[in-house]
Fold each of these.
Amino acid sequence: MSSFSSFTVLSTSLETLKGLLNSFSDQQSSYARNKTSISNPPNALALLHDSISILRAQVTKLSLLLLNKPFTPSAIASVLTSISAECLPGLMTVYEICSPDTYSKVMQTEVRNQLRDLVSATRHLVDQIASMADFANMNAQQGPKGSEDLSGRREEILQVTGQVWSVCDRILATARLGIVGVAMDKAKEWEALIKDAIEELEEWDPDTDDDFDMDLDSEPEDKSSEKR
């Protein structure tokens, strides 16, 4: 495959993935129903775990391809196509079928929030890949005169892939915990918040506020005395 055609394939793969991410965002912002329209839906948490595991592995492949020379658009396009075909459809299905009736409102909220974070992080990664591909394509067209210094862009790629990995790890942990585990974790978080609030109330000294009020009351008198 020629350099021009391989970059064309990469551009197509990037646009396809961007389109799916945009569709996922639209689904997240508009989907308000609690019950799924899918008959006999699969286990949402199992599908979530499998889809995220595949996505994390594919993002790892991407990072290796992007961080090492030479820049190989055809190989990168293949990984992006796999993400579009194998990962996002499953995650979009999870977003719909993880209903509060079956998985609890707490779990649904947790999964949906994490999937929103994932879409955002993945979109940043795709944008960085597109920018890097444009730069590499320009270099390829210039031939030997082109600059091959992609080190700065590779650092950005490493940063955004790390963000995707982090979100993936959080989602995998949620899927492993299950409904009871997530509920217990949330209960512990709420308990900690309540304890902090109680401690702040116990440490609060009403006399301090009284002194502050007295200062406010005396302030106009001080200003009037200064004018005299």
Note: The two ends are 91 Å apart (CA to CA).
Amino acid sequence: MDAPTRFTTEEYLNLIERTVDSILQSELTMTQQYASNQPEGFSNHIRNVAIVGATGTSGKYIVEALLANGKQKVTAITREGGSAAIPAGVTVKKVNYDDPSTLVSALQGQDALVITMSVRAPPDQQTKLIHAAAEAGVAWILPNEFGYDSANESLCNDILPNAGKLRYTSLIEQLGKSKWIGFVTGFWYEFSLGGSPDRFGFEFHKREFIQIDEGTQPIAVSTFPMVGKGVANLLGLPILRQDENDQSPCLSDFGNKFCYIASFVISQKDMLDSVLRVTKTSIEDWKITKENSKERYERGMARVRGGDYSGLAMGMYSRMLFPDGSGNFAVTRGLDNDKLGLPKEDLDDFTEVAVKNTLEGTWTGYG
């Protein structure tokens, strides 16, 4: 009789690991859904998309990109009595948030619901939309994210008005009728660079710049066109892979998860360098002061707690520039730009947009 095989501890652990991996892969293969094994009549693409906030700060870029892609019928969900001009080619459904039946009716036949709202919108509006989407059988919901990494719980808790954002994704899962995709974009670059020094510290009219800490902390940011293209390209993916040989991205990869995109990963000093190039000025032409990120954050949030919501921008932006790297999800999570086929963008092009619109007074508010 042959002597029993003896393993070292390391070999034994490796054997266990390979066995577990084999079992998990086998289970995954058995449960994996493919388009090729779906029943007759199955559509592997989203055909109908409803959007709330179709003319809003980011919503209009999402609508523009959806129309440009030409893959879906787009419906704008708007309030009864609303007067915003909706782009040609978009169906309009009027709703009354105090009458849930109007929401359900507006969402009937929709495959996906995209929610874009101001930070000042009543929180129960999104709750009502999610309930209505479940009742109407909407399969996919993009809740009102489009900002920083909501999977970072400590970050959410530090920004008071947004501490409960995860309750919406939890609600979608509890209702069990839809899957959510949290779209993480970082701050909107053109908007954030200008308009107020409470954001990235720039005052273009006076040529003043507030440097936070050393000004070298990189964060991920996105332009408005990138946000629009990101959502449109995501919703343009096939829902399932065709078969076991298909390794291309699909919408189901993102089901009940976050999708991360960014135009740039840059620091305040990178922004300043771009501003100097665009404005054809030198560092000597600017008045530069320095502030501590944590102290600036505390000042902003103290104003919010006191009922002064003008402090929200200072608090949010300062928190994202903490040296803990919370604002750089490109490193902590990785980016999905390539999966969505997103283009590269030129930093100075969008810095120029920010400078121009700020000096003309186009962007002054938040959200």
Note: The CA atoms of residues 120 and 367 lie 8 Å apart.
